[in-house]
Structure formats: C-alpha cells, structure tokens
Amino acid sequence: MKITVLTLFPEMFNDFLSTSIVGRSISRGLAEVEFVQIRDFAHDRYRHVDDSPFGGGAGMVMKVQPVLDALNSVKQENSYTLLMSPAGTAFSQKKAHEYARKDHLIFLCGHYEGLDHRIEKYADECVSIGDYVLTGGELPAMVIMDSVIRLLRGSITEGSTEEESHENGLLEYPQYTQPADYNGDKVPDILLSGNHAKIREWRILQSLLLTREKRPDLFAKHVLSKEEEKILKKYEKEQNEK
Ligand code: SAM
Fold it and tell me: pTM of the predicted model, to two decimals?
C-alpha cells in the first residue's frame, strides 16, 4: 500500500514511522509512506498557505490553491483521499478494514482554523477521529495510519487481530500473563485448566459481559450469534440459581 500525507508539518511523523509495528511494517515494505509539503505549492513571495476568514473571526484558514495543487500533484486513478476534519464521519475499526484494502491512501491534514470549505468536494471522505478538536490533522492521520497498517497482511501475527475489541462489534475478553498469582491477585482458574473448549466459552462470555457493562451502546447494536445466545442464557440461569 502507498500512503501520501499532505501536511505543513511532516516532521511530526518521524518517530511514529520508525517505531514498533508501524516502523517494522514500513521497513518490510508493506507500506510506503511519502510526504508532500503543502507550503511548496504556495506561489507568493512569503509562501503563504493561509489567510483570514471571510466574514471575520479568529484564526487563519488554509487556502484552496496550494492545497489542491498539492493534492493534484499526487492523485492517481487508484487514490483514495481522506480529509481530516472534526466534522467528518466517525472513524472506526470497520473503516480501518475498508482503507486497508485501498492501493493508495492520501491523508489531507488541515491546520490552524482548518481548510477552506471548497476543498472538501475533492476528497473521497471527510473523517473525524472523535468529538474533540485537535490543533491539526497530523495526529488524526497517524491514528488512522496506525490502525490501517497493523491490518496489512504480514504486519502482525496472522489471526491476532480477529478477536480484538471492535472486530465483531464487541470488546475483547480480559487478557492475563505471568505470574498467575500477583500478591494474591489470581488469574481466573479456567485459563490455567488447559481445557480449550471451556476457555473459549469463558472468553466469549467475558467479551459479552464486558461489552454489556462498559459499552451498552455497542451491546444494544450487537446481534447475538446462536453460540453467544446459548452461553449468555446459561450464565444468566446460573446467576439466578445462586
Ligand atoms: N475550526 C475547525 C472546526 O471547528 O471544526 C477546527 C479546525 S482544527 C483546529 C484544525 C485541523 O485539525 C482540521 O482542519 C482537521 O484537519 C484537524 N482536526 C482537528 N480535530 C480533528 C478530529 N477530531 N478529527 C479529524 N481531524 C481533526
């Protein structure tokens, strides 16, 4: 996959691109990342990329011409342009899978008061990473790139993302590692039993209970599979009998 980031601050990405799973995936050639400095497309003497908003108000708005010239310099037929915006549609794990199937992702990062509204129609999607406002689109681009790159085949161990939170609309079951007893705080016995069928059932139940408790909004939307329904009913029956 090729990733192009249009930004005024490419230096923000340095550590991100060379660290951990993202860094390893790039060095293995799973993703190729390039940067386009939007300021290089400003034509005036002072290389202005922003100006004050029409109608008045605080801050500076990024101008149409340098941004679109930067975008057109890299856009190909197979490109998919994501404009980072707090007014965009909410990013999700489902979206990460969708983007991981693209050949070429372009991230358009706004800064200051944001981008001139006329730029929006040149993007395939406006995407928000949450209901809060950040200084620029660079962190949102890194958030999305991270979740997309780890889904690329060969990035992390095959199958290790399948049971993660949000993959099937539920949160992941609790995970534990050594020691089995930390100052009296013990790992659930079932995980030490070696009984894989029982462990699987326990994990499904925990995933359901955790989601119901912590994210009732997700639980309400989740359609229980036959197996999940059976496990939950059995648990509730046991609880009622106590
Ligand atoms: N004035 C804009 C508003 O009220 O919607 C906010 C602009 S923000 C300070 C500057 C840039 O940061 C935006 O153009 C966008 O690229 C990025 N940005 C900020 N928060 C974001 C979020 N939650 N999701 C995605 N991008 C965001």
Answer: 0.93
Kindly report the protein residue whose alpha carbon is nearest to atom 19 of ligand 1. Answer: 134
Q: Looking at 129, 149, 169, which one is the last position of a domain?
A: 149
Mutate to test the pocket of ligand 1, among 7, 63, 134 (most ligand atoms within 8 A of CB): 134
Burial readout 31-44 (b: 16 or more C-beta within 10 A, e: otherwise): bebebbbbeebbee
105 close to ligand 1 (CB < 6 Angstrom): no
In a shared domain, residues 114 and 8: yes
Among 84, 92, 107, the mutation site with the greatest number of ligand 1 atoms within 8 A of its Cβ is 84
Q: What is the pLDDT of residues 184-210, one digit of tens each?
A: 999 999 999 999 999 999 999 999 999
Residue 16, domain member (yes or no): yes
Strand 61-62, strand 50-51: pairing: antiparallel
- Is residue 203 one of the residues assigned to a domain? yes
Q: What is the CATH number of the domain that holds 30?
A: 3.40.1280.10
